[in-house]
Amino acid sequence: MLKLKEIKTDNWLDVIRLSSGEDQKNKIFEQYIASNCLSIAQASVSNEWVTRAIYNDETLIGFTMYGYSEELKGYEVCRLMVDYHFQGQGFGREALQLIIKVMKIQYECKEILICFLPDNFKARTLYETCGFENTGKTIEDEVIYVLKFV
Predict the structure, then answer these.
(1) Is 21 inside a domain boundary?
(2) Contact (Cβ atoms closer than 8 angstroms) between residue 78 and residue 39
(3) Is residue 143 part of a domain?
């Protein structure tokens, strides 16, 4: 069962060692996502972002950053990554659903935004199967999707 845990002194180094691909290790900007190290640094200088380690039982498998985006003027899942060792096992979908649940409770928001590069077909498929829809808008070179709650 997946859970989100705070990033603290006992796990921060393991979190920044996670990578979306073997060939993406130790990069500040991976192919489709900023590194966890950069995200943790970004969150440390802003009160808007929450960072969490994603665990499957007691095994660290991923990372997320979410919160209020001043740029988008809405609540956003800014980062979601599953380490390449654990991809293809349904953890991305389960993690995204957990993050959505947490954000709905924490922020009482009516919608959640998510942005990604248009050629990231795995992300697009994941987001669409979780109910996100294309807004038709872009920011920089990323498309913006939204999940609205009824």
Answers:
(1) yes
(2) yes
(3) no
